Amino acid sequence: MSEIPGLRIRQLNDLPSNVTGDYILYWMTAFRRPFYNFALQRAVEQARQRQKPLLILEALRCDYPYASDRLHRFILNGMADNAAHFGTTAAHYYPFVETGQGAGKGLLEALAGAACLIVADDHPGFFYPHMLQSAADKVRVRLEAVDSNGLLPLGAVDRDFPTAHAFRRMLQKQLPGHLFEFPQRDALDGVSLPRLESLPHAVRQHWSPAAVELLAAAPEVLSRLPIDHQVAPVDELGGWREADFYLQRFLEERLPHYLQRSEPEKTVSSELSPYLHFGQISSHQIFTQLVAQERWSVGKLGPEIKGKRSGWWGMSEAAEGFLDELLTWREVGFNAARYRPDYDQYHSLPDWARRSLARHRDDPRPNLYSLEQLEQAKTQDPLWNAAQNQLLREGRMQNYLRMLWGKKILEWSRDAEAALQTMLTLNDKYALDGRDPNSVSGIFWCLGRYDRAWGPERPIYGKIRYMTSENTARKFSVKNYLQRYLA
Fold this sequence. Notes:
The protein has helices at 38-50, 69-86, 107-112, 128-138, 164-174, 201-206, 212-215, 219-222, 240-254, 273-277, 283-294, 317-339, 351-359, 371-375, 382-394, 399-411, 416-430, 437-445, 469-475, 479-486; strands at 9-11, 23-28, 54-60, 92-97, 115-121, 143-146. By secondary structure, it is of the alpha/beta class. A six-stranded mixed beta sheet has the order 1-6-5-2-3-4, with helices on both faces. Strand 2 (23-28), helix 1 and strand 3 form a beta-alpha-beta unit.
């Protein structure tokens, strides 16, 4: 069995484990998958050492920020996949879905009362840090959090980085030492554990496992839950099975064309970001399958450490471009979330950006739109409206237009602080990959994070990088994109 790096394990309270407990409890919250999962591997390891049953709790609240039919169905699809898979293993899978606000209150503590110890997912963003610490303070048994977010352990460095170049330079120095520390593909494969005869009596009385019909997430089932029904599900399904499909399609069909990903009418992106966000696929799995296709080995790594975007890996240009998105741009967001508690607050922007935006706070705005007008894609800019419509319909946005989308919101808001709140609200409400550290860093990039000062200094933007719909339409073909999303 491959060992779990100590850097990835944190003990969140000072309590001992309970040697007389009935089971090991794995509290699955952020890494909602059975494969390439260090947290699950840690729980299996503890269950084998102690010869105890493994209980996997995957719960879904109804009061998380922006809870909606769209987000709920995506998560429930994943829970259905997990139920089917774990039902064939030695683990006891317990899915719980709140059907009323607060219905799950006390469940974790009730399960903890009979647990030897709790293993949880260590995620640095959204509500996870507060939720983990609150749980650690309430339960009366050891609670460990395990990092399975990315290829570089969050604890491998002890600070955040001002630019993507600086982070990439650090990655090129630190990452080779972690490329042999991958989680097992399937931590439960071939594992024999004692069976859990039943859940604790109090749990059986008050918290019934989610029925198959609930996990199926049919419209009439979702309509009975106290969540936002105005944000409708998209065609895309959630779960690790769909994530597998998207990964295979990307590697086989889209990767050779990946360098054209900025073109709005080219559909060549991986479309894996929602699955990464909900933990239904691991960057370790993506990397493993990519390097197998590239016939790559660690000996091909370049010797120079200069922070360049390409040339260091020794892979094809397309593969290196994709890895820069998967590793540099995704993991720099997780790094900020871990080491900057204010990573999603305006004052966390670089000093130069805040100073420049402050100098132009009172510049006249040719157009000012309300949140409602922006949400409904009712501006005078057809390309921006099309991009917003894609977000409303599909829960995603073409990657180049996402940058333009944020820049124009800055131009159309009373000030940069209001623009930031509008971006976060629309993205978190409608995007399947919203509320994620990677998503947050992409929005903050629109206001100067991980970027540099640009000239000439302009009204409203100051030294923030400038983008316009007109320049975008001159640079790329957008006719078909407009027809599709303005219809």
